[in-house]
Design brief:
Length: 466
């Protein structure tokens, strides 16, 4: 019996052990499966956290986000701050949409605004933020405000000037009214005097007609006597002129009339040698003769006199000056009539030991006009005089000065200097004619521009450098 009960207890113990083993095994399996799910959940959570922020970012999340708002997560705090920034930039509460969409919306609206202000922020809107744009806009506003203040001040000054001008116009109008009133009184007085004189003349018209007829007859007789005396005087003058002309002809047949151009027809030097390969010549004038670089000469045939028109066979320009000789380049020549040794050279202005006096008048299409001609004469040793006198050697004559039409009253009113310009043009024309007349009186040679340039050996109509 005892043995039977012992076996039965052992059996129960084995069964209980097996049952506990099965239960523990099942629990272990369940626990393992739970741990596996938990690990997977942890891994998924870590991956999601890594997608949200790196480990470094998680560690510094308080610095990045700042203080967490009440009842808000860190991400919610960040989004709230972002929405606050969006509202501050665009001025309205953002819609419930993604941060990317909100950023695109902010960019589009910012660019649309900045594109309307290219003169303030430039054409590259992506390089300028809203704060910088506001600073530039404020600066522009301040400048505009300053300009407006300056314009207002200028406008006030102009209004003050306008008031003063109105006051002056009123005073002038009052003066003119007083003048008109005085003139009207004078006109009334003149009318009264005229009527009185008319009445007096009407009373004695017959006597006045008779007296006027007598005076007219006497004047007619005096005129006839004067005409007869004039005819007689003209006849005597004509006879005297004929006698003077005959006597001058006889005198010129004995003593030839002096040539007023003879001074211009004398050579100043000659060609010593010619180098055709370098287009240069050597002349017998140097620094001892006051020759200098840039001086030009006309070249004339050694076997012929200098022509009266001054046209030479060639022109030369000095570029190297020594004591007794100089070297010059050939600026113009004719292959059919080349420069030869002993050919004569001359320059109307330059003289080694003399200063010739010129009077220049008229208009010149040359350089800066008459000023260039005068500068050239002074530069090459001549003297420029304002008036013709017995010391004048030559006259350089341009074209007659043009005189505009006499300005009308309306033109003078529009341009107060119109009358002054007209008078100045008349004065220049009068001076031009006076010089021509005096040139004939003193028998002074007259050169036009082309002849003048020929006589100084100047090749082109381009003036020398001043």
């Amino acid at each position: 019996m005892a043995a039977g009960r012992q076996d039965s207890s052992l059996m129960y113990a084995v069964v209980i052990f097996v049952a506990l083993f099965i239960v523990s095994t099942a629990l272990a399996i369940v626990f393992y499966l739970k741990i596996t799910d938990f690990q997977k959940t942890v891994m998924d959570t870590e991956k999601r956290i890594e997608d949200l922020a790196s480990a470094k970012e998680v560690r510094s999340i308080g610095t990045v986000v700042g203080a967490k708002l009440p009842r808000k997560t860190v991400l919610g705090t960040l989004m709230a701050r972002y929405d606050e920034l969006f509202a501050m930039i665009l001025g309205n509460v953002p819609e419930e949409t993604s941060a990317e969409a909100k950023l695109d919306m902010a960019k589009q609206q910012k660019n649309a605004i900045l594109l309307q202000m290219p003169d303030i922020v430039g054409t590259d809107v992506n390089s300028v933020g809203l704060v910088r744009a506001l600073e530039l806009l404020k600066n522009k506003f301040d400048e505009t405000k300053a300009q407006e203040a300056a314009t207002s001040e200028k406008l006030a000054e102009l209004e003050k000037m306008l008031d003063e001008q109105k006051k002056a116009d009123i005073e002038q109008e009052q003066e003119m009214s007083a003048t008109i009133k005085r003139l009207q009184q004078d006109a009334n007085s003149a009318t009264t005097s005229y009527e009185t004189l008319k009445a007096a003349m009407k009373q004695s018209s017959d006597q006045q007609v008779a007296a006027a007829t007598a005076r007219l007859d006497q004047a007619d007789q005096n005129l006839k006597n004067t005409q007869q005396e004039l005819l007689l005087t003209q006849a005597k003058l004509k006879t005297a002129e004929s006698r003077i002309t005959a006597q001058q002809s006889q005198l010129e047949s004995i003593i030839p009339k002096p040539d007023n151009l003879s001074a211009a027809l004398k050579p100043d030097g000659k060609i010593i040698s010619v180098d055709d390969s370098t287009k240069t010549v050597i002349i017998n004038l140097g620094s001892n003769d006051h020759v200098y670089r840039g001086l030009t000469f006309a070249v004339y045939d050694k076997s012929l006199p200098i022509p009266r028109d001054g046209k030479g066979k060639a022109n030369i320009e000095v570029f190297d000056v020594q004591k007794a000789v100089s070297i010059a380049r050939i600026t113009q020549s004719d292959k059919r009539d080349p420069i030869m040794a002993d050919d004569a050279i001359a320059n109307l202005i330059w003289k080694a030991n003399a200063r010739r006096e010129f009077v220049v008048t008229g208009d010149f299409q040359f350089g800066e006009g008459i000023a260039t001609i005068k500068d050239m004469i002074r530069k090459w040793g001549g003297v420029v005089a304002d008036k013709v006198s017995i010391t004048t050697n030559f006259i350089v004559l341009g074209t007659p000065p043009k005189v505009p039409n006499k300005p009308t009253v309306e033109e003078i009113s529009a341009d107060p200097r119109a009358k002054e310009k007209y008078d100045a043009a008349l004065g220049k024309l009068q001076q031009y004619n006076d010089v021509l007349s005096e040139a004939k009186t003193f028998s002074i040679p007259v050169f036009d521009l082309e002849r003048f340039l020929d006589f100084i050996g100047f090749t082109t109509l381009d003036p020398p450098a001043r």
